[in-house]
Amino acid sequence: MADRWLLNKLGLVNFWYYDEEEFELEDGKLLLRGANGSGKSVTMQSFIPLLLDGNKRPERIDPFGTSARRIENYLLMKEGENERTAYLYIEFKKGDRYLTFGMGLKGVKGKPVDSWYFIITDGRRVKKDFFLYLDKGYEKIPLTKRELKNRLGEGNFYTESQKEYKGKVNEFLYGFSDLDDFDELMDLLINIRSPKLSKDFKPTTIYGILENSLRQLTEDDLRPMSEALENMDNIGERINRLEESLKALKGLATPYENYNIYIVYEKAKGYLEKYREIQRLNKQINDLTEEVVKGQKEGQRLTEQLAELKNELALAEEKLKEFARSDIKDVRDELEKITIELEEGYRNKKGKNEELERKKGLLREKELDKDKYNSRLREIVEQIAVLLSELDDYGKESSYEGHWLYKEDLNLKMLAEGAKEHRKKIKRGKGVLEKYEGKKRDMEKLLQKGDRVKREIDSAENKLRESEEYLTQVKEEYVENVVNWSKNNMFMVLEDSIFQQISKDVFSLENREGLSSLNNRVVDLYHRLKGNRTGQIEVCNVTIKGYEEKIEELMVKIQQLEAGKEIEFPKDQEVIKNRERLKEMGIPFLPFYKGVDFKGEICEEIKTKVEAALLDMGILDGLIIPEKYKNLIFEADGGCDKYLFPEPSFLSHNISQYLKVDSTELNGEITFEDVEMVLQSIQLENNGITYVDEKGNYGIGVIRGKGKKEYSLKYIGESARKNHRLKEIALLKEKIEEYQRLIDGEKEKIALLTGEIEKIEKELKIYPSSGDILKGMEIVDEERDNLNKLQRELKGILEEKEELAKELEELKKEVFTITEGLTIEKTVQSYLMAEQGIEDYIFTLNDLQTLLNSKKDTEELLTTTEERVRELEDDLDRILGELDRLYKFIKDKELRKQACEQRLAELGYEELKREIDFCYQIKEKNPREIERCNIDKARLEERLNNFQKRISEITEQLEKEEKFLAVYRDILEKEVQLGYVFTQDKAKDLYELSLKIEKDYSYIAKKSKGEYEDNLYQSFLRNNGILRDYFPKFTTINLSTIGDGSETLDDKYQQLYNESSRKDYRFRVEGKEVDLFLLTERISKELEENQLLLTDKEKEFFQNILIKTVSKKVSAKIHHSRNWIKRMNIIMGSMNTSSTLKLSLKWVAKKADNELQLDTNRLIEILEKEVIEAKDIEHLSQHFSSRVREILRQSEDGERKNYYTVIKEILDYRKWYEFKLYSSKEGEREKELTNNAFYQLSGGEKAMAMYVPLFTAVYSRYDKAKKDCPRIVALDEAFAGVDEENIRDMFRVLKEMDLDYLLNSQVLWGTYDTVENLAIAQIERPDNSEYVCVSRYLWKGKEIKYLG
Question: Does the structure show a pLDDT above 90 at 6?
Fold first, then answer.
């Protein structure tokens, strides 16, 4: 158990009704007891899983999963409280290591809760050596987040991002490679924690918990598919719109085709009529030319006939002269006169009848013209009405307010001027809107780019998080290795402070540069240890060297002493210098001890005490100097020394009783007397300035003293000095031996220290390598560099976005400035439509002007025609009157002729009649004939002249008609060139084409042009709404403006062109005007392309997105879930329960809902294929299409779901399966544990059936984490409804699964023999007070102990 992290301590500071409280756990286990409302649930939910993932969503805090409880409800509770800061923390322990995870919360009234997170990794512990508040003595103030951050210092973790915190918790404690696994664990802990578990005791509850703990696909996983589906839907909608448009075009096509046939028939007929008229005129010219030739021949004949008639007339007149003498002549003359008058009357009657018929014909023509002009006028009025309606539409479309202002007066000039000015405004508005929308598109592209970079940043952050988790794991392993290394060392054992500092250094490492100093503390320890030992070795060597030098010195001394040299009295350096100076000055001197010796009878004891006293007194080495040098010594700059100047006392006891002058050291300068005088100056009794006695007491002036007791003779006397020298030699040899022993000891010490250094070096060599950390840091740096690069790119995008936003704002202002006064929606499309509308308005206005001019011309022509009709009607009345008079005249003459004929009969006229008649006939006939011949000849001449004139006139008319024919031909050719009915073959004669048209399309003339135009217009009204995206226009085409154009025409020809104008549909695509056929062709092509595109998108959707991407993730999650369930079954199968009940869990694939959908097994089988066949794709398409329709249909009554929601629901693989729990007992077969079967189980079996699968689910989740992860389970109202004996078994199951737990209960104590260690906290809040009391108990397996 010590090999993994255990939940060790829970803490609250200033949270809910807790001021400061800690709950310590025992071996990771804690039971919170208390009555309802005491706060045990609040306490538990404040830690698990809140402090594991930092997610503060209300449904995660509320144990019932509702949104009723929010985190702020636990902060600002007191009336008038406006602000509060709180802390929650949780401590984990592993061996001697501690990790603390915590959250800070700040609630401010009226604002969202501010939160921050921290992890203490350096070993410090809350309330031990780390405090979350400032202690003012009288008050504890929780730290602000800045104060906390400063207090944490380097090496610990601080963030204000819940996502980062969750990642770090996973990194330090669980080590899931995929955060989805961590989230699944958290969801499972929440679901198991719910108190509903104890209240809703049945298998279906387990199924819901297990299902909810499985993770769905993430938004990043689903976004490409929802976007693709939405894209496909957009394409589908576009296809629907195109199909609707195509259908609308087909609705236009039939009346359009009939109208086009009528128009081409009408124009072909006009062309043929004119063509035939020209043929008729040519025939007339030919006929007239033939008539001229015939006339000329006739003229010759008439000349000859005239001469013959004149001769015959002369003969007849002679005969009649004779007849004239009779009465018959008068009657005959009268008859002849009457006959002539009657013939004249007949001729006049015939002429009048012919004139009447001619006038009637002219009248019919003029009446036809009148009808034609009236029809034309009606058409023009209808066209004007259509144009006015179109102007209304275009005025609305272009938001041209001037239209309504000047429409009533039909002031075309003002309308046109206003429209042109309005067009300028629209163009300016469109221009700035194009800039604005261009910038918006740039912004959209930038936002899309930003979204892409954000997604890449999210991916990079995930990779960085994973690499940081790896680095943290490596760091943890490094720290653990350091701990183990230190434990295994003999010398390089790290103190706790050094270990904490190393741990802090490791976790505060931010770059590879700091890695080089990571081992500094260990290296410092190494150097310190080695340095200490090296220093000791050096000290030993120096000591040895000192000993050896001393031995050498001692050897020299021994050699000197053995050579007989006396031992010099030890002197200070200053004394030596002074005596050298005295020698240089030539001042003689003698040390006292060299100038004296003991007398022979003096005992050794006295000798020793006297010499010891003289040594202490400074006299022993004091200099004896002749009296004469006394002043010289002190006058000079004297050095440090002692001088003996005698003050003898000859009559007293003095030292001369013991000492005598030794003459061996005396020279010429120092005399016996000089030495003796000094001896006389040193008294033996204490009655002088200087004295010494036999006991070693002495005095010098005010000084009194006593010589050393332990002293041996050394200086006074030659024998003493010799003995002293020998002793010194022996002592020196002893010292040499001692020094040698010391040297040996130091060498042993050096050998020991050298061995320790070697061991220290070996321990250093096996110090854990930081190579893995370096590798981890390199990976982190690489991922961080990539993230930084993306973040810089995003920053650039955001900066560019900011600039674009400014530009957009400026353009927006410009848009509002320029479009001020315009009521058009401020979009380019709207302004394009408005621009097209105003263009159409101006064009239509021009058409209207043309129509108004045409109306005026037609009205004038109608007026002229009506006047002519009236004139012709008057002429007809006149002619009819004249005919009536002629009828009366002829009748009168016919009666008179009859009377004359009766009179002639009475006079015998019949007998002479033949001859007389013949003569009369000649006389009557020939003059007439002559006259006739003259008249005929004149008439012939006139006729010939008329023929010539007529030929000229017809020729002139022919030229004009040919021009008209050219116009008719041009009109027909241009109509044919439109290609609306057929395309003219260039090699084919237009006349033949016209004949074919006349023959094939004669049926079309059953209706009038007005009827066809009305059908056309009605069809336009029915379909133009569907085709509004193509700016449909019902317009009039003037053929004189089609093709190459026409030169300036006379009004009569222009009138023909105007009359040949036709109605047409016009549409606009990408700024270009197209006709119905081009639009139909374009839409058909676009429809085909979109259908192909949809097919491609469907392939991409199923092959690239669903199959290659999403299906892999779904399959991975399904595989992951199956493995989880498999592990659960293995665990449950291996459990030994007190009963023979065995449990197993199955995850059963569901069947299809209908024939269009697939069974789950079949669906997974297809999705997991490496290569998917076309039929499988078709099955997938049917399945998902059916599911989409089903979900959208279900959402029709409520809020319509977007495609992301639909796709999320469709690809919720959890709904593709259902959990089923099976049970079996010894000797029985396995059977499904339905709710009914569950209710038949015993209490213990029910508990096992409920909790074992859930505990197993948790265990299997932990099994996928790091081996040392904490294994926590939390239960609200733990084991409620389970009897005591079975609760005991529940604790045994928890123990067997090695699960730590945090439980709460109203009645449970947990004091069972299956529980080894348990911390128990009794929480009380009497009378719902504003404070909480906690009583602590400890259960150690056999007895419960009250802790306070």
Answer: yes
